[in-house]
Write a structure and sequence with these properties.
CATH topology: Protein Transport Mog1p, Chain A
Mean pLDDT: 84
Number of helices: 3
CATH class: Alpha Beta
Shape: globular
Amino acid sequence: MRILVLLPLAAALAALSAGCGSGGPAGQTTTRTTAATTTTGAGALQAEANATVAGDIPDTQVFLTFRNPHAGYAMKYPEGWAQQGSGDVVTFRDKNNAVRAIVSSGVAWTKAAVQADAQALKGARVQGQPQAITLSGRPAFKVVYQTVSAPNPVTGKRVTLTVDRYYLWKQGRRAVLDLGCPLGVDNVDAYRLISESFRWN
């Protein structure tokens, strides 16, 4: 009887620990990183303590195409989300759901370079090792990590953000794409659509 009660609880905890996209494989080890900066300058995505915790992106969500001629790419984003920044660093937010793209010049990513970059994320808990994947028909790497916001000044509560980070490159340009949402929020389909929509010009 005790085993039957514990099984659904274990399944629920496993679901909550997955990333906003596909998350990481079960059984991954988690590593806390403490270095101050990353090799790309793309620091860990952080939740906003004062923002209302966002819910799932609805199935009826409309997506628009954002074109960035300066950085040389295009990708989809949810209609109605606020854009912050321009040029090489652009973020779209809806409360604590966030999508950020950072583009820089550089050689193609390698697994070792991605691992070094992920390990340098200040205050992040990186889940497992970088995964070599194919995104929109091109090679890429994926890392999943979590961050915790500063405490809310009124309630003292903190928001845990789970982030799927993608490393992409093409002909001397490379990008870091972060897609984050509060722990327990399920944006798998929407974030898969966004990540797979990324196109270099």
